[in-house]
Design goal:
3 domains, eight-stranded parallel barrel, binds zinc ion, binds 3-methyl-2-oxobutanoic acid, 17 helices, alpha/beta, Double Stranded RNA Binding Domain, about 40% helix, TIM Barrel
Length: about 525
């Protein structure tokens, strides 16, 4: 009989910490619903104390997403834990996940203040006490409490045993061993899990979990090695997104166990046919592009290029394929819809792709669909995903593009005219610039009489569908009054996509202005 491995998805917490990722609350809810369809066991929805937006996201997910346990992160601080509980309390099932750094490097770096102790030994004792108090406090809200000794991969092993034993005695039901910096080697990490099992007296009162980062490209290998040694929960993210080089990728772990079920006596409850939709949705909403050769979900994962491979594949697909595209939900880009398609057909295809829409949103999507169908004869799943990733559809924006005209030529100075709708007026202006995009940005700033300091930091454009009517996506990073915004715009026209991305950043800034406050600040919230 195969033993179950619990899948703890942290796309919305650790994944969202990926440089360049930016998710709005509505996008997080959409992803959480898709994770529930994927049938993960736990969704770590965020770190509620860190900002109002994080709190709102966790609270809304707890409210509307059924199925998986919803978890929230908290430092070993009562206010963090109280906030996590408040945000989670409406969930069907919820978990508080608390953590503290336990490696000497973390202890001496993060707890350098003398109030934590004069030397390493005293500080270590203080951290055990903080961890035990935090777990006991969390237990006053729920039975389901997870504790992580952060940077366990580099923590003195005997101290690690002490911390784990103490928090289990205080009531922790899941002990997560994070390789926070992706430092360990697979055999070494597996051995650490073996030692934890052997040396921690009360370890059978908790589930062992692992949480591996990918700094050396070993996050999945380390997770599998830990499973072999007794871990029964793995923490991972869709597309492997996360801090720095990312976290262990959910799809790689799940498909390793699944494809090699002859080797591994373990199973997960993941509905693998939802993997492709989940990957696409996360990539679209975060703006994090999946590399073409990424295992399981990359564009080339099922492509056969060389003649010999194609020939072999056509005779028998198993010659070069160890899993079928269908098993991960990839149905080779079918043409599905065109300008004569009705609302109902579109709505039901969107539901299959993981998007649930209110009637109001569906009206907007349908209008955009018809506009697109006028330009593009054939509408593919990817085109629909782009429509759904367009933040302008779902938001009450401060600024919307009403009109854009750009003049360029070999002997003319690029000139742009824009008309922008605000809540109570329409603003129009023209400007020149070094190129059409610069001219458009300048015209917008002028039309809206913006006094902000705006600095463009990075500008990327890529084609995201195929054919001559391909959609272009522009992702820009820009600082507005010293805060970094990552924004996106899509269109069949690159300049229009750039203008939409620019307006997306301005709209994010306007929304933030209304809600920007931290619920609690003791020290910088830095995980
Ligand atoms: O990488 C890490 O150590 C973490 C913890 C908070 C679990 O993300
Ligand atoms: Zn992490």
């Amino acid at each position: 009989m195969s033993e179950k491995i619990h899948i703890f998805d942290t796309t919305l917490r650790d994944g969202e910490q990926a440089p360049g990722s930016s998710l709005e609350v509505e996008e997080k809810i959409e992803i959480a619903k898709q994770l529930s369809k994927l049938n993960v066991d736990v969704i770590e929805a965020g770190f509620p104390v860190s900002s109002k937006a994080q709190y709102q996201a966790v609270e809304s997910i707890a409210d509307v997403v059924n199925g998986p346990t919803i978890a929230a992160l908290a430092r070993c601080i009562e206010n963090d834990i109280e906030n996590a509980y408040q945000a989670l309390k409406s969930a069907e099932k919820y978990r508080i996940h608390t953590f503290a750094g336990t490696s000497d490097i973390h202890i001496m770096g993060k707890f350098s203040d003398d109030k934590y102790g004069k030397d390493l030994n005293e500080k270590r004792n203080t951290i055990i006490k903080m961890a035990v108090d935090a777990v006991s406090f969390a237990k006053s809200f729920t039975d389901d409490v997870e504790f992580s000794p952060e940077d366990a991969g580099r923590t003195d092993i005997n101290y690690l045993f002490e911390v784990i034993e103490a928090v289990i005695s205080a009531g922790a039901t899941v002990i997560n061993i994070p390789d926070t910096t992706g430092y360990t080697m697979p055999e070494e990490f597996g051995e650490k899990i073996n030692l934890v099992k052997k040396k921690v007296k009360n370890i059978n009162n908790a589930i062992i979990s692992v949480h591996c980062h990918n700094d050396l490209g070993l996050a999945v290998a380390n997770s599998l090695s830990a499973i072999k040694s007794g871990a029964r929960q793995v923490e991972c993210t869709i597309n492997g997104i996360g801090e720095r080089a990312g976290n262990a990728s959910l799809e790689e772990i799940v498909m390793s166990l699944n494809v090699r079920s002859d080797y591994w006596p373990y199973k997960t409850d993941i509905k693998t046919k939802e993997i492709h939709n989940s990957s696409k949705m996360v990539s679209k909403h975060t703006g994090m592009i999946v590399q073409a050769n990424k295992a399981v979900v990359g564009d080339n994962a099922f492509a056969h290029e060389s003649g010999i491979h194609q020939d072999g594949f056509l005779k028998n697909r198993e010659t070069y394929e160890i899993m079928t595209p269908e098993s991960v939900g990839l149905n080779k880009s079918k043409i599905i819809l065109g300008r004569h398609s009705g609302r109902h057909g579109i709505q039901s295809r969107l539901a299959e792709l993981g998007y649930e829409l209110s009637n109001r949103d569906m009206n907007k999507v349908y209008k955009r669909f018809l506009e697109l169908a006028d330009k593009k004869k054939e509408i593919f799943d990817d085109d629909l995903r782009i429509l759904m990733g367009d933040r302008n559809i779902k938001k009450n924006n401060a600024f919307d593009l009403d009109y854009l005209h750009v003049a360029i030529g070999t002997n003319t100075i690029p000139t742009a005219t824009v008309r922008i709708k605000t809540s109570d007026s329409i603003a129009e202006e023209s400007a020149t610039g070094d190129g059409p995009v610069a001219a458009s940005f300048k015209a917008i700033k002028r039309a809206l009489k913006l006094e902000y300091d705006i600095k463009l930091h990075d500008y990327k454009v890529r084609s995201i569908t195929s054919g001559k009517d391909a959609f272009g996506e522009v992702i820009i990073r820009l600082f507005i009054n010293d805060t970094l915004y990552v924004s996106k715009g899509t269109s069949t026209d690159t300049i229009k996509a750039s203008v939409k991305a620019y307006l997306d950043a301005l709209n994010q800034y306007e929304r933030d202005k209304k809600s920007r406050y931290l619920l609690y600040i003791e020290e910088p919230v830095n995980v």
